[in-house]
């Protein structure tokens, strides 16, 4: 499995305190990478992520940074390069934010907050890290976590949907411009993942989630660890020829335009129990 090894490399993960960010950090450490962990000042769970990485024998550098403060991101990238005395080999733009609001109640402040974190931070951090990669001759990987909402709309999330779609096309542009330097840029688009979600829900959340699970062909939300394999493919030599693409990890939601199977009789194999039997059925 040397193709998936990240031994001797360093990966930077934003939004690393919990959820997908923690799963990604631990998965990268399991593959041999040292970690740069970035999250909000005082983010609960960041120490636990550090401990999980250390338990795997990998090193960490941790930075408290509000990614909405776009003007500080170049300085953050420069500081990381100086502190490590090297450029990270892998950048995982995982941090994101959302707000459940009808389109006609979205304020300029709410719109701008979503865009600053989900689009501006992705661009300006990627821009500066890529500059360091080029200067240091690092054939790096830039991976941006988008969502199935980059591909299909969902009511109550106009600004979030728009931000994730923007991040997708932004990543494709980076892929084209950075390819001459051997740097790849791809997105990982999860569906519904069983992670903590902050904020108020102006409807029956339990009923919504039950209905949504019925909509997923695999019948359940993903565990964060189930997204790690896709990330490792994009981060490692195994995915060296993948750039400008997206990996969708959604349990089959986007493949099923009409959830008809719940109204159909249960599928039963036409083969007898135990297989096709012992008879010779060759023509």
Structure description:
- With 283 residues, the protein is an alpha/beta fold.
- The protein has one domain: 3-Layer(aba) Sandwich (Rossmann fold).
- Helices cover 36% and strands 13% of the residues.
- The protein is built from 7 helices and 7 strands.
- The chain has helices at residues 19-30, 46-55, 73-84, 108-136, 158-178, 205-215, 228-235, and strands spanning 10-14, 34-39, 60-64, 90-93, 141-145, 184-190, 246-249.
- The chain has a 7-stranded parallel beta sheet, sandwiched between helices.
- Helix 4 (108-136) links the parallel strand 4 (90-93) and strand 5 (141-145).
- Helix 1 runs parallel beside helix 2 (46-55).
- The longest helix is centred in the middle third of the chain and has 29 residues, at 108-136.
- The radius of gyration is 21 Å and the shape is globular.
- The relative contact order is 0.13.
């Amino acid at each position: 499995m040397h193709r998936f090894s990240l031994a001797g490399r360093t990966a930077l993960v934003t939004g690393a305190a919990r959820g997908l960010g923690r799963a990604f950090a631990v998965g990268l450490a399991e593959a041999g990478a040292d970690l740069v962990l970035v999250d909000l000042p005082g983010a609960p769970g960041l120490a636990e992520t550090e401990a999980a990485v250390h338990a795997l024998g990998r090193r960490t550098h941790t930075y408290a940074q509000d990614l909405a403060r776009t003007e500080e991101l170049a300085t953050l990238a420069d500081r990381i390069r100086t502190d490590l005395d090297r450029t990270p080999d892998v950048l995982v733009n995982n941090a994101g934010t959302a707000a459940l609001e009808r389109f006609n109640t979205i304020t300029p402040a709410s719109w701008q907050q979503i865009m600053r974190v989900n689009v501006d931070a992705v661009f300006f951090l990627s821009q500066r890290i890529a500059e360091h990669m080029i200067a240091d001759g690092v054939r790096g990987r830039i991976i941006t976590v988008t969502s199935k909402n980059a591909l299909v709309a969902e009511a109550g999330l106009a600004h979030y949907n728009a931000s994730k779609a923007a991040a997708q096309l932004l990543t494709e542009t980076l892929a084209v411009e950075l390819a001459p330097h051997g740097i790849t840029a791809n997105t990982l688009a999860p569906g519904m993942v069983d992670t903590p979600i902050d904020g108020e829900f102006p409807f029956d959340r339990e009923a919504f989630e039950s209905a949504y699970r019925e909509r997923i062909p695999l019948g359940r939300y993903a565990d964060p660890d189930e997204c790690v394999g896709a990330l490792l493919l994009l981060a490692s030599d195994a995915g060296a020829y993948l750039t400008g693409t997206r990996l969708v990890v959604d349990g089959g939601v986007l493949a099923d335009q009409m959830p008809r199977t719940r109204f159909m009789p249960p599928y039963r194999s036409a083969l007898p129990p135990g297989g096709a039997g012992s008879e010779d059925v060759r023509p």
